Each structure stands twice: as structure tokens, then as C-alpha cells.
Amino acid sequence: MRTLTRSALLPAAALALTAACSSNPAPARSSAASPASVSASPSPSPSTPAQQALSAYRAMWADVQALSETSDYTNPRLGDHLDGQAYMTISENMSVNKANGIVGVGAPVLHPRVLSVNATTVTLADCMDDRNWLEAYAATHKLVDTVSGGFRYTTATVTEDKGVWKVTAIDTRADGSCT
User: Fold this and answer.
1) Which one of 34, 67, 75, 152 counts the least CB within 10 Å of its CB?
2) In a domain? residue 61
């Protein structure tokens, strides 16, 4: 998806957190990694903090992808797996898309891995592929532009509060920041 990821969501998220994550090098994409498309269906109940964080991260992107189809930034589903800075960044940028009549089509492909774990906070890294997550004008369904995305190095902080895991911070870099 273009505006949500390229011109609004991802650059804003990157600017918001670049300082916090700038020491993390972009990982090389492993040929052994099996791409996992965003899926709205929940995984079995995970038991470890790492499993719960990965599940929340994937669910967050499923929510964002689904809501981007109408740029529905007021839908309560947005808060199901997002909180804090991550929620503010994504909801604000989705509202910009809504105001500009832009919606998302397609879905990103995720490749998350765990960087660090403690009892209530997990840090993830991803080489998110948004080549097939594009933007279109809602009124005409015409693509905003024809340039596909790429692979973006993304870090996320996933935090547990009262038994619920949510993405609370996200930093998504430019296209080509991982391969």
C-alpha cells in the first residue's frame, strides 16, 4: 500500500522512532525465511512472551491492512493490537489517507523475528515486503502510482499490559532498507 506505507504511515513512523532504533543494522533477508502474509485468523493461543508478541504483531498488521481498505481510522479494531506511539502514528496517517480519498489494496508480507524478550516487553525486527500493498483512490480504484514498494526494515516494541499484548512502538524504514 502506497500512502499508508510510503508517503504517510512508514515515513512518519520512521521519523518518530529513528533515533531509538538507529543503531540496529538492517538485516539480510534469509533465504530460509518463509514469507507469511498478513492473516486475519488468529493463531492458537501462544504461551511464551515471544510467541504472544509475534501473534500480536501479525494481528496488528492484519488490522491495519483490513482497515486501510477504507482508511477507517475511527474503527475500534485499530486499538485491538496497537497502543501508545504506534497507535497514534498509524491512526493519524490513516486519517490523512481518508481525507485524501486514498485506500489500501493488497497486503504486506511479514518476516518477523524476535530481537529481545523479557516478561512484559518483546522487541521484534521484520523485513516487511510491501510490494503488493498499494494505494488507490477510493472513488475510482485507480492506483495512486504504479511504483511498487519494497522490503522495509521494521522494528516493533510489543508490550503486555494486564494480559494483553499490543504493539506500542514501531519504526519502519525506507524501501530497500533490507533485502
Assistant:
1) 34
2) no
What's the domain range around 6? Answer: 1-18+69-179
Task: Report the predicted TM-score, pTM, of the whole model to 2 decimal places.
Answer: 0.77
pLDDT tens digits, residue range 55-102?
Answer: 999 999 999 999 999 999 999 999 999 999 999 999 999 999 999 999
* 136 grid coordinates: 488507490
Alpha-carbon gap, residue 134 to 148, rounded angstroms: 7
| Residues 106-137: tens digit of each pLDDT | 999 999 999 999 999 999 999 999 999 999 99
Cα-based torsion angle of the residue sequence 121, 31, 172, 55 in order, rounded to the nearest 10 degrees: -40
Query: In CATH, what number is assigned to the domain containing residue 98?
Result: 3.10.450.240
Check pLDDT > 50 for residue 179: yes
**Which are the contacts of 40, defined by CB distance < 8 A and separation ≥ 6?**
62, 66
**3-class SS letters over the chain:** CCHHHHHHHHHHHHHHHHHHHCCCCCCCCCCCCCCEECCCCCCCCCCCHHHHHHHHHHHHHHHHHHHHCCCCCCCHHHHCCECHHHHHHHHHHHHHHHHCCEEEEECCEECCEEEEECCCEEEEEEEEECCCEEEEECCCCCECCCCCCCEEEEEEEEEEECCEEEEEEEEECCCCCCC
